[in-house]
Automatic annotation (TrEMBL):
Residue span(s) of domain Inosine/uridine-preferring nucleoside hydrolase: 36-321
Protein name: Inosine/uridine-preferring nucleoside hydrolase domain-containing protein
Family the UniProt entry places it in: Belongs to the IUNH family.
Matches recorded under InterPro entries: Inosine/uridine_hydrolase_dom (IPR001910), Ribo_hydro-like (IPR036452)
A Pfam match: IU_nuc_hydro
Domain of life: Eukaryota
SUPFAM superfamilies hit by this protein: Nucleoside hydrolase
Species of the source: Aegilops tauschii subsp. strangulata (Goatgrass)
PANTHER family: INOSINE-URIDINE PREFERRING NUCLEOSIDE HYDROLASE FAMILY PROTEIN (PTHR46692), INOSINE_URIDINE-PREFERRING NUCLEOSIDE HYDROLASE DOMAIN-CONTAINING PROTEIN (PTHR46692:SF12)
Length: 353
């Protein structure tokens, strides 16, 4: 394990025509809209939602950064796929921060909540590669790396400590420091609330700059006994995965007093079908991102239809559709915004009519 004996794979030696070029837009004179942070756990639906955010006019939605939950549906190294998507969209300027790989209060190794995510088909095996489609994306010069230095707690400096993967809280601090005095941040979350809870608990200034949080998660079971979606824990009938993966974080965020809009499982189940969205993409203008989204949705649709091991992936589609509706400020079919009070906490909730 001595440094001088370490082998380094050189990508440019293997692929001579590859050039490490960073694509960053000139934003000096750009009119920028509402500052948005996207918190994701790298499920396939999250990548579709990310593409929608990147396609939105910057005058309306200004994506300032991406926070990644390491305790969600993909391994931390899947951050590379986020870098590749940003590279394809010409947004190598957007910082990506990696959060904790365990829930709040859980040990670094052996977190019981993360064990609920399958490792094989329909789990890490597919989400880490986006069903094998991640390889078609252009390779970004930015990569996930475990390179570290003594400055950040490593036992020794490694060969290239400057390549250290930024942490979610560091990206949050960077975004907050660059805000104008009148700016407020809107946060869209599509995974466990670990990153948001850490920010609220660790940064005293966070609540003053967060305007609103949209949370795709929770399950408000009605009188008809609607079941949750944690299918890998049969004894837990009513939980929803995003809240289940870190219940302490969910509690901290909900009780923070911030302006929160919940999109619970019952509302998610009201959205359109795979077939209608894939049909629209099939007839849309052909761009690299639309072709990628079409192939990804088509793969999800076929697997969900033909293989019982993939029955749950429709929930990833819900995430994409819900976030798209939020960004377009449209009312979802058959749903309304309803205000509820839970233990003196006022929450805006999307519920079925």
């Amino acid at each position: 394990n001595r440094p001088e004996h370490t082998g380094h794979f050189n990508f440019t030696d293997q692929f001579r025509h590859y050039k490490e070029i960073m694509y960053k837009p000139d934003l000096e004179h750009q009119i920028r809209g509402k500052p948005v942070i996207f918190d994701m756990d790298m499920s396939p639906g999250d990548f579709l939602a990310l593409l929608c955010l990147l396609k939105a006019p910057m005058e309306a939605i200004d994506l300032r950064g991406i926070l990644v939950s390491g305790n969600g549906w993909a391994n931390p190294a899947t951050v590379d796929v986020i870098y590749d998507v940003l590279h394809m969209m010409g947004r190598d300027d957007i910082p990506v921060g990696l959060g904790k790989i365990t829930a709040l209060g859980a040990p670094d190794l052996g977190c019981e909540y993360v064990k609920a995510i399958p490792h094989g088909s329909g789990g890490f095996l597919d989400t880490d590669t986006l069903f094998g489609l991640a390889w078609v994306l252009p390779r970004s010069p930015r990569r996930y790396t475990a390179e570290n230095s003594v400055k950040y707690g490593a036992p020794r400096d490694t060969a290239r400590p400057e390549l250290r993967q930024p942490l979610a809280f560091e990206v949050w601090q960077h975004i907050r420091e660059e805000l104008k005095p009148t700016d407020k941040i809107t946060i869209l979350t599509n995974g466990p609330l670990t990153n948001i809870a850490n920010i609220i608990l660790s940064d005293p200034k966070a609540e003053s700059v967060i305007e609103r949080i949209f949370i795709v998660g929770s399950h408000l079971a009605g009188g008809n006994g609607d079941r949750g979606n944690v299918f890998t824990v049969p004894s837990n009938k009513f939980s929803e995965f995003n809240f289940f993966l870190d219940p302490q974080a969910a509690k901290a965020v909900v009780e923070s007093g911030l302006d929160i809009t919940l999109i619970p499982l019952r509302a998610q189940r009201q959205v359109d079908s795979f077939k209608e969205v894939t049909r629209s993409l099939c007839t849309a203008e052909k761009t690299p991102e639309s072709s990628f989204a079409y192939q990804l949705l088509l793969s999800m649709q076929k697997l969900q239809k033909n293989n019982q091991a993939y029955h749950h992936i429709v929930s990833w589609f819900y995430r994409f559709y819900i976030q798209t509706a939020i960004m377009e400020k449209t009312t979802l079919d058959s749903v309304v915004i309803h205000t509820v009070t839970i233990d003196s906490v006022v929450i805006h909730t999307v519920l079925s009519k």
